[in-house]
Design brief:
Elements lengths: L1 H7 L12 H16 L1 H24 L9 E3 L16 E8 L4 E5 L7 E6 L20 H19 L5 E3 L9 E6 L7 E12 L19 H9 L2 E4 L10 H4 L2 E4 L1 H9 L17 H18 L9 H14 L11 H18 L20 H16 L3 H4 L10 H6 L3 H35 L1
Parallel strand pairs: 2-7
Antiparallel strand pairs: 1-2, 3-4, 4-9, 5-6, 6-7, 7-8, 8-9
Helix pairs in contact: 2-8, 3-4, 8-9, 8-10, 9-10
This protein binds zinc ion.
InterPro entries: Mab-21-like_nuc_Trfase (IPR046903), Mab-21_HhH/H2TH-like (IPR046906), MAB21L/cGLR (IPR024810)
GO biological process, one term: paracrine signaling
Protein name: Cyclic GMP-AMP synthase-like protein
Length: 449
């Protein structure tokens, strides 16, 4: 009864004083489960690498569209950022297209996130086929369409019957999405988002000029380095109906290259996570939050349609830039750290204000991208999760079944494992006692006979 009352009145957003032992155990267990997924991912990475290398070669040699010959992968090698936690085999690949000097103009009603991208001067280069009538503005729809056409041709020429299929085009997505289904292994499913990207080397636009707020966390020098890097644009239009012509052809600014760097070198001290002795739990906290977001989306797909993992990642960076010391994120602080992160996210939803980490004037929780009704639903859902100690995290995620048995043996579930040992011991004792009784009875019987 007492524990029931406590779990119902469980604190306020971000309150870490009343983390129950059950909640602490569940958070740690869930985070261990998520770590095991990495084992599965290696073969997926291999398959995706092979696909992307072949695609690059195809594009470089292609006869029908010279503009796409000069492409490169923005994040090369085997390190891809995993977007979704419950589906570890989803990959994002940004293909960088080489463009001449560009001029950016911000679409005002979108507070620094969406831009019209123009060539500084007219050109006879290959890019001319992807311009609007003014012969300078780069058309996001034309680039997307061509990327789609080329990938379709590539798959039918080189990967036909090998399990890869192209998903239909989505008007709001910048990506060409390929799905892979292994006929021999039903569980072996993965998807790859291929996103054409423009590089703008001449400095960040005004809205992001001051850079991310990382002075206390990663340092001023690091911020200056980030701001001196190129910035990227992907062919993505804003959400909403009755868009103006400019908005239909707009490009969305992307900082994913910087985000990746911040994820990799995330410590206040440079040595964080370099060895076992200075491991931290930052990444695991983000994984848990992403897992929670996905779980909620699966449960309420319609109501929470505007919610995505980027909201979680943004909250994560804000918390990191405020809670800077590495010792606060030591593995022993896992539950406290997660509750702090979750609390921040819940408070942002309550206030209806989650600022973009790089473009401070843009609120990711503002309509039309995030309608008020969806935000109210999210606020209630988060409160309920906190009060009931995160039932959505207790549901085993679909791919948990993919984890091989050997891993389960290496990391046995402490609760179930012990329970089953105790249970079998009990039943063994039971049988043993009955045997003794029978032997004694037979013995007594013999004496009397
Ligand atoms: Zn670390």
């Amino acid at each position: 009864m007492e524990s029931q009352t406590r779990s119902i009145s469980f604190g306020t957003p971000g309150d870490v004083s009343s983390i129950s032992p059950q909640l602490d155990r569940m958070i740690k267990q869930k985070s261990r489960d998520l770590r095991l997924r990495k084992v599965d991912q290696q073969s997926a990475v291999k398959t995706v690498n092979h696909l992307i290398e072949s695609l690059l070669e195809y594009l470089k040699k292609n006869e029908d569209q010279p503009f796409f010959r000069d492409v490169s992968v923005l994040t090369s090698g085997s390190y891809y950022e995993v977007v979704k936690i419950n589906k570890p085999n989803e990959f994002d690949i940004m293909l960088k297209l080489k463009v001449p000097r560009l001029e950016l103009s911000e679409l005002e009603e979108y507070q620094g996130l969406f831009y019209k991208v123009k060539l500084v001067k007219a050109t006879r280069k290959e890019i001319q086929h992807f311009l609007l009538e003014d012969e300078r503005t780069i058309s996001a729809t034309k680039i997307k369409e061509e990327m789609h056409r080329l990938v379709r041709k590539f798959i039918s020429n080189h990967f036909k019957g090998k399990g890869w299929v192209i998903n239909r085009k989505l008007v709001n997505s910048p990506a060409v999405t390929l799905e892979y289904n292994n006929k021999e292994k039903e569980d072996d499913v993965m998807s790859v988002d291929i996103v054409p990207t423009l590089e703008v080397p001449q400095g960040w636009p005004q809205a992001a000029r001051s850079g991310p707020n990382i002075d206390n966390w990663l340092g001023k020098k690091c911020r200056r380095q980030f701001v001196s890097k190129a910035v990227y644009f992907v062919p993505k239009r804003p959400k909403g109906r009755n868009l103006k012509d400019d908005a239909k052809e707009s490009w969305r600014i992307s900082f994913s290259h910087i985000e990746k760097e911040m994820m990799q070198y995330h410590g206040n001290k440079k040595t964080c996570c370099e060895s076992f002795s200075n491991k931290c739990c930052r990444k695991r906290c983000l994984q848990l939050l992403k897992c929670l977001i996905e779980g909620l989306k699966q449960r309420y797909p319609k109501e929470l349609e505007p919610l995505c993992s980027y909201h979680g990642k943004t909250a994560f960076f804000h918390v990191l830039s405020d809670r800077v010391q590495d010792s606060l994120w030591s593995p022993g602080q896992m539950s406290v750290s997660f509750m702090k992160l979750f609390g921040y996210f819940e408070r942002r939803a309550l206030d209806g204000s989650l600022l973009h980490f790089f473009v401070r004037q843009h609120n990711l929780f503002s309509p039309p991208a995030f309608p008020k009704r969806a935000l109210a639903f999210l606020t209630n859902a988060l409160k309920e999760q906190r009060e009931l100690e995160f039932p959505v995290l207790k549901v085993p995620s679909p791919s948990a079944a993919l984890v091989p048995d050997t891993d389960a043996l290496l990391h046995p579930n402490p609760i179930n494992g012990t329970d089953s040992i105790v249970a079998s011991e009990r039943s063994f004792r039971h049988v043993y006692a009955w045997l003794v009784v029978v032997i004694v009875c037979v013995g007594i019987g013999c004496v009397f006979v």
